[in-house]
Design brief:
323 residues, alpha+beta, Alpha-Beta Plaits, four-stranded antiparallel β-sheet
Length: 323
């Protein structure tokens, strides 16, 4: 299988795939989009970008080729070097290099490399099986109404609303005026209770409000549980302090030391690496059932890359795995 096929497979599961001698291919999440001209609805996907400055070999591509083809790591790295030399040769003579299902690299007059991604493959696994949907445009009939007709209709509506509001106000005010006049004329004969009840009389003085205190229950006092100390010299109670538990960090980045089909061999390598000062452990099995052994595990990619350089500086071979 060609190297570009392995690059395409790794882009489904990793955010960055570095090809030594060429650069790094980076994927970023892109939400669903609607094309304004073709009226096509595209599902969420991953956009691919290229960074020529990513030249540090993290061993991801070489280890994947070695596991897929069951060949040594050195042969897989040599295969990558030949592929990188072919791409550089195409850029030097043809000014363009195609990578299947990934995109096209091109070089301009200023020796600057640009990248054009290919949109035929969707590398977002959450959108697997979703295809582009094309819908016809929605046509709306425009209503042509003369300006004079609109003004005439608006004035009629305003007049009708004003008249309806005036009638409503009159329907409320007239009964109130009649009632207040009746109460003022019959003030001498109306009883005190009725006058107190009918506060619509503007000539009648309202009775003073009397404040009645309300009984409010006191809240129950909080009970503090204290822990008595057993010492006779200090009989004062001691408050129990509860500290929140700290959440452990997730170690998602692993520096792989090797893969074994035997669990016993994997445990032997773990003991050997721990004796050398590493925090080694078995981090599970891959798709082919091989047990992976790590030098160490980290919570961030930056810490893992720093440790990777230290391990390689002493002659050890490793690669970065994200779970």
């Amino acid at each position: 299988m060609k190297v570009e096929a392995y690059i395409s497979e790794l882009l489904y599961r990793h955010d960055c795939v570095i090809v030594p001698g060429i650069g790094g291919f980076i994927t970023n999440y892109r939400p669903a989009q609607i094309h304004p001209v073709s009226h096509t609805l595209r599902p969420p996907s991953k956009s691919i970008s290229f960074n020529v400055q990513l030249q540090n070999n993290d061993g991801l591509l070489a280890n994947y080729i070695a596991e897929s083809e069951s060949i040594p790591y050195a042969k897989a790295q040599a295969k990558i070097d030949r592929f990188a030399q072919k791409i550089q040769n195409d850029l030097e003579h043809k000014k363009e290099a195609k990578i299947s299902n990934v995109g096209i690299l091109s070089k301009d007059r200023n020796e600057k490399i640009s990248f054009e991604p290919k949109f035929t493959a969707n590398y977002l696994l959450d959108s697997f099986g979703l295809e582009d949907i094309q819908s016809p445009a929605i046509l709306r009939k425009a209503k042509t109404i003369r300006l004079q007709e609109q003004v005439a209709r608006g004035s009629k509506n305003i007049k009708s609303k004003q008249s309806s509001i005036n009638w409503r106000v009159a329907a409320v005010i007239v009964p109130l005026i009649g009632l207040s006049a009746f109460v003022s004329l019959q003030n001498s004969s109306v009883s005190e209770n009725l006058a107190s009840y009918a506060y619509l009389n503007p000539f009648k003085k309202k009775p003073a409000a009397v404040y009645v205190p309300r009984h409010v229950e006191k809240p129950a006092e909080k009970v503090v549980v204290l822990e008595e100390t057993a010492s006779l010299a200090s009989p004062a109670p001691k408050a129990v302090e509860v500290k929140p538990a700290l959440s452990a960090e997730k170690m998602n980045f692993h520096l792989v030391a090797g893969c074994f089909s035997s669990k016993e061999n994997a445990d032997n390598l773990v003991q050997k690496l721990n004796a050398e000062g590493y925090k080694s452990s078995v981090i599970g099995q891959n798709a082919k059932g091989l047990f992976r052994v790590s030098f160490n595990s980290f919570s961030t990619r930056e810490l893992a890359l720093v440790e990777m350089d230290k391990i390689k500086s002493v002659g050890q071979s490793t690669w970065l795995l994200k779970q």
